[in-house]
Amino acid sequence: MLEVNLYNLGYCDESEYTRVVCVSRYQGKFVFCFNKKRNGWEIPGGHIEEGETWQDAVKREMYEETGATKINVIPISVYKISTFALLCFCEILEMEKLPEEYEMSDILFLEDLPDNLTYHDTFKLYFKTVKEKIEI
Known about the structure:
Layout: E1 5-7, E2 19-26, E3 29-35, E4 40-42, E5 45-47, H1 54-66, E6 68-80, E7 84-95, E8 104-110, H2 120-133
């Protein structure tokens, strides 16, 4: 497992976030995306691009990786692997077909974690952290 350190929101300035990860749910089920390059299921998320806020990055990544067009976002925790990042919970309200031009090839809706997660222990920690902070 990667070494992941979790911190309370506000631990660092938001400008220090380099990525976002979003434990996501749609119609009562958790959402996972299949990464073609890593050949496994993942939680939506990715890098914050130059000039983006973390909110912009969440919206962009959720669309690119799930097709979500309308979401409610709850920041959960700051985490650090090599740089600071933000763990969020996203409730997907509306979605379109998964965009084909990005790295994800499929979407899965489950009540729990799938078996073939690319970073199983890390994603399991993210789920546990979200479940401890909010009722889902």
